[in-house]
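Hi,

I'm pasting everything inline rather than attaching a file, because the server keeps stripping attachments. The sequence lines come first, and each chain or strand is labelled.
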Amino acid sequence: MSIEQHGRGTGSAGAPTGVAEAEPPAPGGPAGGGRPSGVRRTPLPLALLRNSWRQLTSMRTALILLFLLALAAIPGSVLPQRNINIENVNRFAAEHPDLFPALDRLGGFDVYASPWFSAIYVLLFTSLVGCILPRLRDHLRALRAAPPPAPKRLDRLPRHAVLTDHDGDLARIAAALRGRRWRVAVRGDTVSAEKGYLKETGNLLFHLSLLGVLLGVGLGSWYGWHGNLLLVAGPENAYCNTLQQYAESELGHRVDAADLPPFCLELTDFTATFLPSGQPESFRAETIVEQGDRAPYRASFSVNDPLRLDGASVYLLGHGYAPILRYTDRNGVSQTSDEAFLSIDGNLTSEGVAAFPDVNLDPVTGARNPDLQVAFEGLYLPTAPDSPPFTRSMYPAERSPAVMLFAYRGNLGMDAGIPGSVYRLDQRQVSSGRLTQIGEGKLLRPGEKWTLDDGTSVEFLGTRQYVTISARYDPGERIVLISSALLLVGLMTSLFGRRRRVWFRLSPAPADTTTTGRSSLLEIGGLPRTEYAGFADEFDRLVAATRPDPATEEGTD
Amino acid sequence: MAALSDQLLVVAILCYLLAMICHAVEYAFGTRSVIGRAAARPERARVLVGAGVGAAGGTGPADEPGPVADTALPDTALSGSDASVPAGGSGPYRAVLAGRTAVALTGLAALVHLAVLVTRGIAAERMPWGNMYEYLLSVTFVGVVGWLVLLYRRPTLRHLGLFVALAMVLLLAVAGLLLYVPIVPLVPALDSYWFVVHVATIAVSSGILLLGAVPAVMYLIRHGHDQGKRSFPYSLGARVPAADTLERLTFRLHAFAFPIFTFAVMAGAVWAEAAWGRYWGWDPKEIWAFISWVVYAGYLHARATPSVKRPVATWIAVLGFLTMQMNLYGVNIFFEGLHSYGGLD
Ligand code: HEM
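And the predicted assembly:
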C-alpha cells in the first residue's frame, strides 16, 4: 500500500498508485487487479480496439458522457416536444416557418428519441457495463479472498499503535475482530482484517440498478401503449377499447392493435366541486365497466386515483361540458347533438360546434340537400353574465348556464373527405360562400328555443358532462420501480459505507522492556480506505480491545 | 392567521438582514489572525496527533476534518474560536461579539421563519407546500436549520454565515415579492400522499444542496486565494476556513442530500404515475430535475475520480446548484408544463 498516495490529499483512497484511473481500486490487495498490459504484442487493430475500449470505460469518459447527457436534455425543455404536446409543436412550426425544418431535422422536437440523445446514453451505459463487470468480478473475488497481508512498515499507516507486554495471543485478537464482524486472516505472526465490503457492493448494486431502470424504460416503450379520448356521459357514448376509438394513441414497437385488452367504459356521472375563487377542489368520475366475463360493475376514479383494469389503467385528465342541442328541420324532424365543447379558460368557457349534416332531407326521396345542411358554432358559458357581452363564463360550475349560438346553413364540406376539426367549422366553406351565417348570434338558456328565418328551430336542452381520459399500459413500470428502490439502497450503502483495514503484528519484545511474564510486542496499523471521520475512534477502541488486560478491555468497550 | 403569516415573513427577513449586518461587522473587524487561526487549526491539530501516534504526514484524504483533532485535543481547543480569542484588542472582541449576535439573530430568524410556515399551514389547513411561494419558504427553512446544525457542530465555520444570511434575505425577498400568492387549498392534482412525500423530500434535499453551495463557492474562492489570486472574489478567501475543510464539508453535504434528492425524484415519479398516467414524461420540471440529478451524480463521480482535480469537481457541484435554481424559478417562469405549481398566472 502506498502511503504517499494517501498523503497526497487527492484521489480515491486506497487506489494503488500507478494503476490507470480506469481501473477500480483492486480490492484484492496491494498487488492490484492489474491486467496484462503491453507485455504481449498485439496486432495494431486489436490494440486500437482495446485502447478505445479502455478509453470508453474510464471514469473520465463516464464523466464527460454524464455531462453531455445533462446538456442534451436541455433543448427538450426549451422546444415543444411532439410526444408531450403536438399542438405546441404545430404552433411553433407556424410561428417559425424558417427555423422549424432545420430544428426538426436535428430532432429538436423529439429530443428524447433523437439519435444523438440515444447515442449518448447508449455510450454511457456501454461504458457503465465495461466499468462495472470487471469491478464486479474483482469484488466477487475479494469477497472470497482473505484480507491482504500486512505491509512491511505498519508505522507508516495513517493509524499506528504499539502495545508492549502483550501475551501474544493472536487467536484471541482474531476472535475479538470476528466478533466485531471484521473479516480476518491469521498468517504466522500477523493478523489482517478488513471491514466495509458493503460499500463496494452498494456501488455495484447502484450501477447495475441503473441498467435495470433502462431495461424497464425500454420494455415500456416496446410493449406499452396508450390512447387518449374524450368521453361524454351517457350509455350511447360508451366506448370500447379499440384503437379507432382514441383521438390520439401510441402503440409500442411490439404492440399490435389486436393486442389491446378488451374492456368497455361508460361515463355515468361526473362531479366537480370548485372553490368560490373558481379553483377546482375535487373531481370524481363515475363509470360502468365491462371487462371479460364479469358482469358490468360500477367504478369511480379521479385525478391521483386512476381506474385500474386488467391490462390497462384509466386516468382522468380533464373535463368539460357538452351542450345538448335539438334542431327541428323544415320537415319537422328533430335531431339532437351532444358534442363536447372544449374549455378555453379556467372558468370553463367552452367552444364547439353542433353540426347537423343530415337535416332538411328531400321529403320524397330522402336525399341529402348539400345546401341545406345546418351547423351551430357556439360558446357555452356555465355561468353566464347577466348582461352582454356573453363571451366569458364567470365561474366553472353551472350556476346560470347559457349557450351563445351562431347558426350556419349551406354545405358543411363534410363530404369532401378532408377531416376537419369537430370543434370548428370548416372556414374554407364559409369564406367561399358555400356556408352562410344566418342572422346574429343568439343566447339561449336551458329550455329556450330559437326559431331561424326558415322556420326551423334549435332548442338548448341542457348539458352533459364529459371527461378526457387516458388509457395506458406500461409493463416496464414495475421493473423501473424495483430497480429504483435497489438503486437507492445501493447508493446509500455506497455513499455511507466505509472500507477499512487493520493489521496486527507480533514480535518478541526486547528483553529489557519485559516487566511481566508477557514478552511480546504488538504493533497495530490501521488504514481507512475511504473518507471516514470516525476511524481514529474505532481504531483506538480496537487497540484497547486487543489488550490482554481484561479490565482495560471492559473499560473501553 | 394568513395575515399574521405574511407579517411574520417581514419580521423574518428583517432578522436575517440584521444577522447579515452583524456577520458583516464581524467580517470587517475580525483580524486576519483570529480567523486565520480558526482556519489553520485543522492542520495544527493534525500535527499534534501525528506526533502522538507517530504517523507521518497526516492522514491524507481518508480523514475528516474534525475527528482526528477531536480525539486528541481538549474540546475547547477545537470549538473555541471564541474562547481562545485574546482578551486584549477591542477590535477582535467586538468582532466576536458581532459574530455571536449574528448567530443568535439567525436562530431567532429561523424561529420566526418556522412560525411563518406554521401559521400559513394552519390558515390553509394543509401542509404549507402548495405553491412556489410556500415551497421556497420551506426549502429555505430547511437550509437555515441545516446551517444552524452545522454551526453547532463546527463553530469555526461561522464566517460563512454572512453568505448564508445574504442568501436567506435574497431568497425570502424573492419569495415575498415575486412569488407571493394568497392562500388557497390544493388543486386536485396535488391532493395526494405522494405529493406530500415528494415535496417534503425535494424541499429537504434542495435546502441541503442550497446550503452545500455555500462551502462549495467558498472553497473555490479560498482555493484561488491559496493559489495567489488576489482580485475581488478571491480576496474574500483570506477570511474563510481552510480549503480542505470547506471541500470536505461540500462533499459531505452533497453526499447526504443526493440520496434524498434521488428518493424525492422517485416519489415524484410515483405521484406522476397516479396523476397523469406516466411516471416520467419529460415535462420541463422533470427535465430539469433529471439534469440536476445527472450533474450532481457527475459531481460525486468527479470527486471519486483521482485524475479530476478537486476544484473542477467543486465547479460541477456549483453547476448542479445553478440547475436547481433553474428548476426552482426558471421553469416556473419560462416554461409551461403540467406541474400546476407555479402560481404565477
Ligand atoms: C449512468 C451513468 C452513471 C451514473 C448516474 C453514475 C453515478 C454514480 C454516483 C452517483 C456515484 C457516487 C456514489 C457511489 O459511490 O456509489 C458513482 C460512483 C462510481 N461510479 Fe458511477 N455512474 C454512472 C456511470 C458510471 C460509469 C460509466 C462508470 C465507469 C466508467 C462508473 C464508475 C463508478 C465508480 C468506479 C464509482 C465509485 C467511485 C468510488 O467511490 O471509488 N459509473 N457513480
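Residues 115-144 of chain A form the longest helix (30 residues).

If the labels don't parse on your end, tell me and I'll reformat.
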